[in-house]
Amino acid sequence: MLIDTHVHLNADQYDEDLEAVLGRAEEAGVEKMVVVGFDRKTIERTMDLIDRYANIYGVIGWHPVDAVDCTDKDLKWIEELSSHEKIVGIGETGLDYHWDKSPKDVQKEIFRKQIALAKRVKLPIIIHNREATRDCVDILKAEGADEIGGIMHAFSGTPDVADEVIDMNFHVSLGGPVTFKNAQDPKDIAKHVPLDRLLVETDAPFLTPHPYRGKRNEPALVKLVAEKIAELREISYEDLAKQTTENAEALFKI
For residues 213 and 182, what is the distance between their CA atoms, to the nearest angstrom? Predict the structure, then answer.
């Protein structure tokens, strides 16, 4: 069995066929899914999904791209919602220097506030990092994020950075790019990270694995991610699935 540790089933792309998507996930052996809400609309949808489906859990936070829209009232709302027994993490939060909607200083402030929030509610924090690795890691260190740990989602850093975040009590999660033919970096990470610190995800509907690249992603395809990592590590798929599932269950307490 597998756990898709990061999926956006709250996205508009699943409005027409969510039940079919969930059926295919079950057929593929995806036992549990963690849906991530990152703004008002997707957080509300996350809360609905975790109440409707026994095998769906939620992570809620505020995305760095939209940090400029985040108010203290929003953060208070997230903190209140986090008391729900099926909210298992705070995020995705972090830094994104690719898009310029939110100034860097605003992103950093909202990131720090969410680390503090996660520490107050004692939940792991899920990190989005795009083209901001050094600042992201430095803020995690400065704010004492090792106290709660969490996940470096869709990890795109070097092995040295992986070691650095693992030392801070974080897990490294890999998705579709590990299957891309010309993407060597995630393949190197898949072999480098200790097995007890590794997680698998889809980030669906995005980052669809080979050979379905260009089409909508969905939780069933996390199996392709797990199969590729098992191949790269030269272990059985069953062993990889068992360990990554145990890792996710321990981190999220599910």
Answer: 13
